[in-house]
Write a structure and sequence with these properties.
The protein has about 170 residues and is α+β, with helices and mostly antiparallel strands. About 50% of the residues lie in helices and about 20% in strands. Helix 3 (about 100-145) crosses helix 4.
Length: about 170
């Protein structure tokens, strides 16, 4: 009965409007103390790495194991995430924060979506769409309101008022 009252285009239009006209945007700002960039290890020297940043600049990074919980082995060709820091004298330095894993995560996500569609067909695709809309609500409504100081319990209830019917309808 409910499925006949609310067609898919209305849901898509509602969330497209909510997404683009949301007044709750929080801009991601990186302070000057914590700038991260992507780089590729060109060569491994004794206790140092020569790294080419994404803008083409080549830098030398110390292999400081004290910054890491567990020692990691980096080899030539690894893509890494560099974090820039300022020394007390105002000089810039870098350390390797982690491996760059975005491409691997995208491949795993696509395998997951393909498996869901193969096993459950359209029902799974609708459920994934409902999950996507839930993420939009969480990241564009719930978290920004909590970060602005609103009562977390009331914000969570408000978010669930949007999430629950849509998830039930789509799955």
């Amino acid at each position: 009965m409910l499925k006949k009252l609310i067609p898919y285009p209305i849901i898509v239009l509602l969330f497209a409007t909510f997404w683009f006209l949301s007044p709750f945007d929080i801009k991601q700002n990186q302070s000057e103390e914590n700038i991260t960039v992507e780089g590729t290890i060109i060569s491994v020297l004794e206790e140092q790495f020569q790294i080419e940043k994404e803008d083409g600049e080549k830098i030398i990074v110390e292999n400081d194991e004290s910054l890491s919980v567990s020692p990691r082995e980096f080899i030539t060709g690894d893509t890494v995430i560099l974090t820039e820091f300022k020394t007390p004298l105002g000089e810039s330095g870098y350390y390797i924060a982690d491996y760059f894993r975005q491409n691997t995560l995208i491949i795993l996500f696509l395998i997951f979506v393909a498996a869901v569609v193969i096993v459950t067909r359209w029902q799974g695709l609708r459920s994934l769409f409902g999950m996507f809309l839930s993420f939009i609500i969480v990241f564009k409504l719930i978290l920004p309101l909590i970060l602005r100081g609103y009562d977390p319990l009331l914000v969570a209830i408000l978010g669930s008022i949007f999430i629950i019917p849509i998830t039930f309808y789509l799955s």
